[in-house]
Design a protein that fits this description.
The protein is of the alpha/beta class and about 230 residues long. The chain contains eight helices and six strands; from the N terminus they run αβαβαβαβαβααβα. This is Putative aminotransferase.
Amino acid sequence: MTATVVRDTLNALGIGRGDEVIVPSYGPGAPADGTRLAGATPVFADIDARTYCVDPASVADRVTARTAALVPVNLFGHPAALDRLADLALRHGLAVVEEAPHGEDLGAVARRRAHARFLDSALTGVVVPYTEPGAHHLYQRYTVRVPGNGRPDRDAYLRALVERGVPATVAVPVPVHRMPAHRAARPAELPQTERVAADSLSLPLHPGMTQRELTHLATVCNRLGGVV
């Protein structure tokens, strides 16, 4: 979902100046950027720290008389809680701007899931991804959390992984509400967003990985112990 798609969808719904749109801060900036392009005001909701997707309870807390829509995001391959969000939207008369379905190669998804199951069982010292019961995780990213003192420990662990040949990355270095374009928005209390942004990183996971590569990845991570 691009900012232009969000803008055009909101404009088509008659949503613009004077309206508020609830968006996540942890994840891509397109929902907030598109909301501003449409002339509306983004209001940032917190996330569920297990799924990394927007928390329906936090969304509910941010609904006001000016709220016109919400834009959930399926993050890292875990689907947003659309059933709960749809119920909330129905109660308050809000539009839900959903991502268009992406064509996924079923074989590639099956391999990523198999790789993820191996890492779930093999990794120690980090918090592995969570899947909500009944959800179909696509594992577009395999994002873990590093216990410890937040960003300093996460960054040290990341550097150690890279030095040992594991190309880990930080998927969301800065939450959207802290970016210059959005700092003037309504002040946001987003404790889970801040914590996850500070202690999470994504490990390499792709369909073509061999068992040897997966075992090497797990071995390197486990030898570091999570906190460096």
